[in-house]
Amino acid sequence: MFIRIGADGAVTLEEAADLRRLSIHTAATPAADAALSRLTRADGADHAWIAPQRIRELAGSTAKDWNDGFAAMLAYASGKGWTDAAGAVRAHIERD
User: Fold this and answer.
1) What are 42-49's contacts with CB under 8 Å, separation 24+?
2) Rounded to 5 degrees, what are φ and ψ at 84?
3) What sign has the CA pseudo-torsion 60, 12, 3, 84?
4) Residues 6 or more apart in contact with residue 75 via CB below 8 angstroms
């Protein structure tokens, strides 16, 4: 799955069923930069930390299967060191 931040700052979750990846695709505009900083905590220029709850909010109403798969994804990320002490998960940022 990936989070898309449009040029206007609109934020959507795309390909939510693909729980094998997580990234943020963002436009290079002031509105997109502002949305990114509200949604995440920067980790250098190419990565950001995002709270799982923010991803769940973007996913909206989901089936139990998705929630179970997302929990498994977070457990895998934790085992790889891709979560912080607060439970935020690290995501790669791709700029359009």
Assistant:
1) 43/90, 45/93, 46/92, 46/93, 47/90, 47/91, 47/92, 47/93, 48/24, 48/90, 48/91, 48/93, 49/84, 49/88, 49/89, 49/90, 49/91
2) -105, -175
3) negative
4) none
Assess contact for 32 and 70: CB atoms under 8 A: no
Residue with tokens 């900083």: 37
Which of 2, 3, 9 lies closest to 29, judged by CA?
Answer: 9
- pLDDT tens for 32-82 read 999 999 999 999 999 999 999 999 999 988 878 999 999 999 999 999 999
Give the integer Cα–Cα distance in Å for 76 and 66: 15
Report the amino acid identity of residue 83.
T
Show the tokens assigned to 85.
């002490």
> What pLDDT score does 62 carry?
80
- Strands 41-42 vs 11-14: parallel, antiparallel or unpaired: unpaired
